[in-house]
């Protein structure tokens, strides 16, 4: 009898629930556990929901209470204690399967979602759904992604990006040393489905002689031929300079933006989804890049040794660096501050001084109700200075010297290829 009264009291305590969607990023546990610590210290019960959004549309969701000791044990670890999911609810899911009882039976006052662009877009749908149904449940989203492609003000990074860049640069730095030591070229594919922030960050940090990102093609269509010619532009330029080694970093989004016809014409064998789109997620972009480049070497009669390297899954679950440990803690405390002020339907934004403010999801959405990705500003100082001063590539001044390696050096002119 006493235990049942305790359970009743516990369930009637004001609660919050936290879920994590999409793929992992360094700092996931820091956000979740810092949110937990902050709300626990203010008298709330904290519930963790496993399985991302799928748990909100299930009659048997997997949940567990997060107490101080659990939060204290995991807040500085990589990965995500709460199991994640890429589940995207349909309109039918919302109308027929939304588990309102989960919120009612546990007296939940706030839903905290942690994730990237897809998770933010679903959070926007949930905010509108709760508002339309007049359910008194606040919803605050914490933006994460190693891709750094959520539209935060003042070029503020998403959490996880700096930790992923740190590890990615560490890998790329050792790869560059391997290239220098062995006299080879190593081809690196870096994660970045919609934007080239991570690839450019790695390329700049390691003085990579060529970094290829989707945003470079702002004045021309992305094609395999242009990707290959940009790479050869760097290799030929370094040959002219007497440098027989180097690295090339390519954002995976470059390959995702290729047309299906271009992929087929290149002789790439792959599977296609039900819509006829190539399933590039199932293959190594670095290996694909290397194979295409080797064909070009044979075509022009150039002898260059290349090796493919993939940077992606190895940077998602590492321990967060100090930057993200602090930043994620500030974001978590910002969630509480916004909730206390009655905010809902928003992403939490923390400025350089640690001040939290809301970014309303309905203001960020496009016509389809999705949160569009933030892409690299190719005309900004970061990109402009990298391509002007660190990159190596053919210019008109190199045409005569380049004829030693290719018959038509203007075809490998960096700015001609990109129509810059």
- Return the CATH class of the largest domain: Alpha Beta
The strand line-up of the biggest sheet is: 3-2-1-4-5-10-11
Unreliable stretches = 1-6
**Percentage of residues assigned to helices:** 40-55%
Tell me the CATH topology of the largest domain. Rossmann fold
Describe this structure in words.
There is one protein chain. The chain has 420 residues and is an alpha/beta fold. The protein folds into two domains: 2-159 and 320-364, Rossmann fold; 165-316 and 379-414, Phosphofructokinase domain (Rossmann fold), CATH 3.40.50.460. Helices cover 42% and strands 14% of the residues. The chain contains 17 helices and eleven strands. The protein has helices spanning 2-12, 28-41, 68-74, 91-97, 100-105, 117-133, 161-182, 197-205, 224-240, 253-256, 260-265, 285-300, 322-340, 361-364, 381-389, 399-402, 414-418; strands at 15-20, 45-49, 63-65, 108-115, 138-143, 185-190, 210-212, 246-251, 306-311, 346-350, 356-360. The strands form two sheets. Strands 3-2-1-4-5-10-11 form a seven-stranded mixed beta sheet, sandwiched between helices. A four-stranded parallel beta sheet has the order 7-8-6-9, with helices on both faces. It is elongated, with a radius of gyration of 24 Å. The chain starts with a helix and ends with a helix.
